[in-house]
Amino acid sequence: MDNKLVAKHIIPGEVWLDTDGTLIQAHGGGVLFHEGLYYWYGENKNGISRNARVDVIGVSCYSSSDLHTWKNEGIVLPAVTNDLEHDLNPRMVLERPKVIYNDTTRKFVMWMHIDSADYSYARAGVAISDSPVGPFEYIGSFRPNEQMSRDMTLFKDTDGKAYHIFSSEGNSTLCITLLSDDYLSPTTQYTRNFINNYREAPALFKHEGKYYIITSGCTGWSPNEAEYAVAENIMGPWKVIGNPCFGTDAETTFHSQGTYVLPIKGKSGAYIFMADRWKREDLKDSRYIWLPLQIKNNTIEIKWLNQWDLSYFNY
Question: Structural domain of residue 41, as residue ranges?
Answer without folding.
Answer: 27-313
